[in-house]
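name: query_chain
kind: protein
chains: 1
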Amino acid sequence: MNSLKSHWRHITTILLFAILSALLFFVCLKQIADSCMDTDGLLNWDAKHYAFIAKQGYSSDFRTAFFPLFPKLWGVLGLSAIGISIFNGLVYLISFFWLSIVFRIPYQRLWLYLGLPTAFFFYLPYTEALFFLTGSLVLIGMNKGKESLVLLGLFLSVLCRPAFTVFIPALFIIEYLDHRPWNIKRLLIRLLVIFLGLLSVSCIQWMDNGEWFTFFSAQEGWGNSLRLPEFPLSSWGGGPIVKLDGTAMLCAFLSGCGILYLVFIPKSYEAWRCDPATRFSLCYLAGIGLLVLLFRGGLMFSLSRFVFASPFIILAVEAVIAHRREFNWKRIGSSFLVFSLFFLLIGSFVHLRQLLMFSGIAAYMSLWVMLSMVHKRGVRNALYAALTVIQTILFCYYGYRFLIGDWVA
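structure:
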């Protein structure tokens, strides 16, 4: 009880955001139904496939691309679309609170992470809430040196989604970055657990449809095959979604730069917070961006969900903000220039209006960079307030678009 009292600011912030999220969903769903609550808005896009698997199991079709932990748990619980959404929301908020306490995230920044643009997926019949929990188990286990948590998190994460494609290379990279003799036994056990998770996925699907490892072939049905990307990069859903996925790709690119920085500048450990959990987070973000780039031919669809609806983006951003620097306008201007140049890969040059909108996103990203340089309390609080307003607007905007049936991620 005393421990909870000491974190009352964290609890209050999370509860306030939960109330905002509940109001958003209530208002949107009621507006869609005109006169009464309607759950159809909750079952858009991938959610309807999870609902199908929960009720009828796997068949020999494209749905084997969806991994079983969430839909099978939904089937066992027997909840409605609203019930499972509430369940997911609780799983996410409790996991978020645990993560924020373990990694000592200041309560002033909680709203910024709770309001990430695609964080509304945590309150939907999607796998994101469970993946946030399982990913948090991995990160907390690495932070606390509790290998049992790491192994449990790796196993459950693979049951959630095809995370093994990113986790396996990430484990090799963080082992290399330890700058000491490799712990081969630990690495092999972690890889074995991932393999067991993958085997469990196949067993669960085999019990339903009598076929083994069909999720590999199912990926091709979703347009995932190795090929060179076409530029400028694009996405499904039109302009606002392209900008959202483009921002996620920028975060993946910056994470990759962070990993290269750690690999090629050994003394960087002394200058930058780089605990194993942070390194793993950077590897995940860089890896998921690279996979989307190489396997989708230049389409970035769903990348914003993979990046922003995960615990890994939180630790990556915290690593940047916690690395305190002296205020420097040149550094802020350089960051804005790098962000703007990156957006040329996404077609920001095709029209003046596009260029201005992407410049606005680059300015918004530069505000995050400023957080690591501003030391005056008043200015820092003003930055928090500005980013909080922007984050809340984006959260509500993209959440509303999903609920009315538009593609978001």
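note: Residues 2-211+226-324+375-403 form one domain.
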